[in-house]
Amino acid sequence: MTPQQQIFEQIKKHQRIIIHRHQRPDPDAIGSQIGLAAIIHASFPMKTVLCVGKQVSGLAWIGEMDIADDDDYDDALVIVTDTANPPRVDDNRYTHGQTLIKIDHHPNDDPYGDLMWVVPSASSSSEMVYDFYHQFKKELTITPKAAKALYTGIVGDTGRFLYPATTPHTLRVAASLMATGFDVTAVNQKLDSIALPVARLSAYVYENLDITEDGAASVCLTAEVLEKFDLKDAGTAGVVPLPGKINTVICWAIFVAQKDGSFRVRLRSKGPTINELAKQHDGGGHALASGAKAKDMDEVKQIRAELAALATAYQKDEKE
After folding, report:
1. 191: helix, coil or strand?
2. Where does the record place the DHHA1 domain (predicted)?
């Protein structure tokens, strides 16, 4: 049997299903989690389906988390969506169920679970969840709630269909989801809107962006900067794509201060492969979109230098 068939058999087998996703969730993490839960619940109303993880107020409009007791994990099927490695799973009880399944679109550098379905070429985990539904649509039901969540995840992870992972299949999936009748315009406007503090931070990012001659850009959002704009780490997600809008920038890093003095590093690229750099700094991800950590300003400087070297090598290869 294929991984999808094995997963479907496990869903039919278990009465209680608990779905996890990664910490600091983005729209795809919550979209794939909520979308899968809504499909299972609509298809098997007698089953208990719970979504767990920290509730993020800014993404509660996609779907809200459930409260799961420790006893709920007894004999439960646990599914983790959109999470490449175990340390990133939100709520460490994900190992307490009877069976563990990983559904993800990141490179499978850190395998885990009793069953894995990993498709790195997929635009998003939400696209994968739709494909799962479509494969078994004679027995599964999709609702506007599920479609809204999955569409949101796809739009979020493709950068409004701007990123290279967007394929003709991605657009066909989006069209099929739109046809279920949820308010697509409202979702698009919600994803496109930003709070006033983020708008002001955006101006700061552009004003303070350091760009090398070969197109490596970076900006450091220190604790003082975050306090000035009354923002926490989660509120900085909206500025991550901004450097890429500059035509001379080919790769970039956003460093965000954490409470312990370290920095969260968001890496993006239009060409150079950056996930290997991320792995060298306690991170990982896609070839053009990754995350890492810097323990102090010295490591911030090191990552900046390594990113600049990647940009230089890429530009040299392009000219040859």
Report:
1. helix
2. 247-310
Residue 261: other Cβ atoms inside 10 A: 10
Domain check: are 41 and 176 in the same one?
A: yes
Query: Do 122 and 229 share a domain, yes or no?
Result: no
Nearest to 263, CA basis, from 229, 292, 304? 292
Domain of 208, in residue numbers: 197-319
* Number of CB atoms found within 10 A of residue 162's CB: 10
* Distance in angstroms (rounded) separating the CA atoms of residues 192 and 233: 19
- Do 10 and 135 fall into the same domain? yes
Q: Calculate what percentage of the chain has a pLDDT beyond 90.
A: 91
Q: What is the pLDDT of residues 177-190, one digit of tens each?
A: 999 999 999 999 99
For 271, the token pair is 């060409």
Number of domains in the chain: 2
Residues 139 and 241 in one domain: no
The band of 316, judged by pLDDT with boundaries at 50, 70 and 90, is confident
pLDDT at res. 166: 96
Instruction: Indicate the residue type of 237.
Output: A
- Determine the Cα–Cα distance for residues 233 and 259; give it in Å rounded to an integer: 9
Lowest mean pLDDT among 60-69, 75-84, 170-179, 285-294: 285-294
Tokens (6 digits) for 248? 């001379």
Angle between helix axes 27-43 and 125-135 (nearest 10 degrees) is: 20
Question: What pLDDT score does 153 carry?
Answer: 98
Within this chain, do residues 292 and 236 fall inside the same structural domain, yes or no? yes
pLDDT tens digits, one per residue of 210-229: 999 999 999 999 999 999 99
Query: In the structure encoding, which two tokens stand for residue 226, read together?
Result: 């975050």
Give the 3-state secondary structure percentages of the chain, helix then strand then coil, rounded to 5. 45, 20, 35
* 262/186 same-domain check: no
